[in-house]
Amino acid sequence: MKYSNDPFWVRLRWIIFILFWLLWVGMLVGAIIIIILAPKCEPRATREWWQKGPIYQVYPSSFKDSNGDGIGDLKGLESKLDYLDDLGVKAVWLNPIYESPNKDFGYDISNFTAIDKRYGTMADFEALVAKLRSRGIELLMDLVPNHTSDKHPWFEKSVKRERKYNDYYIWEDSAAADPSGQQLPPNNWAIIKKWPQIIGCLAVLSVFGKSAWEWHPERQQYYLHQFYKEQPDLNWRNPNVQEEFKEIMHFWLDKGIGGFRLDAVIHLVEAEDMIGKDEPPSRDPKVTDPNKYGYLEHTLTAHQPMTFTIMETWRKFVDNYAEKMGDGRQRVLLAEATGEVPDVMKYYGNGTIAHFPFNFQFIDGLKPPLTGDKVKDNISEWMESLPNDNLWPNW
């Protein structure tokens, strides 16, 4: 105890005590400064409605019949909203309900702004959209920009060479006539045989291996149809056609829908200088029949540069529409794009084209024999091919 009152030790204890608290306070202040000044982690991005849950496809004619006529309809779909809600669905992708001769399950459209009466009325549609949205579910329309029905007024007017509509479609003269006098197509372009004859879009040339060109006796020219002859291809190099579809999009967006699934977009634009140009053989060892669609490499009729330019204008259109509405709801574009993964990735742009293209590769990659490594590789190929990390995959 002799040191307890010694002035030297008393001063030393006070010095140590004060230094301890100065050091402690200094550390506290330093920690606070580090917390304040250190670079912040980026906040977690807010997910949009289409990123928060599944998108549920509804083929209307077979989903739910409300009136006993044997055909599903809009009121039938409305009666099943509790079911969709229970599934956690965030959006319904509705296959075509437009007026149509129904040669291709509604994908041959004769009026893009009218409801086919077999499904109900426009009032039924508006009521469905309102009830879906009251549950936090968006509706996506299936829009077919590549072609129309041959019963569409545009085509009928184009056949007659009416001034505005003369080149709404791809018309070409015959390349020549055979010895019997029959007109021959401009080139070897082929059409796609579609479901239900064969499941899948890219299957064979046609039911009978026909050309993608159909002679029209009234106009005395061939018209291009990459699908059935009742589905003439639109001429997307015509500015009037481009404006028509913006008006169609605006019409349905004004009805309150959340966006569009865009059908068969890889075929939207054809090579400009097409006459006399045949598509080369694909040299795929698995396809030896010249009547198969895969026998040709579709360098002139698929994934053309102008397709992406046009789709960028659509993206700007729906983005501007959403901004103008100011309701915080994105309007989305989903692209049905088939092909090899590098080609499909082009439909993302850099976040400037589709919000996402369909991932058909995921389904194709799950064919037997199925292994864990195969699933992993399938997923990794898509994820590693994304143009940037901010883009949204789909499965």
TrEMBL record:
Source organism of this protein record: Darwinula stevensoni
Segments passing through the bilayer: 12-38
GO BP terms, alphabetized: carbohydrate metabolic process
GO molecular function, one term: alpha-1,4-glucosidase activity
Leader sequence residues: none
Top-rank taxon, per record: Eukaryota
InterPro entries on file: GH, GH13_cat_dom, O16G_dom_2, SLC3A2_N
EC nos: 3.2.1.20
Pfam family, one: Alpha-amylase
Family matches, as Gene3D superfamilies: Glycosidases, Oligo-1,6-glucosidase, Domain 2
Keyword Transmembrane: yes
Keywords in alphabetical order: Membrane, Transmembrane, Transmembrane helix
Every Glycosyl hydrolase family 13 catalytic domain range: 57-376
Protein name (record): alpha-glucosidase
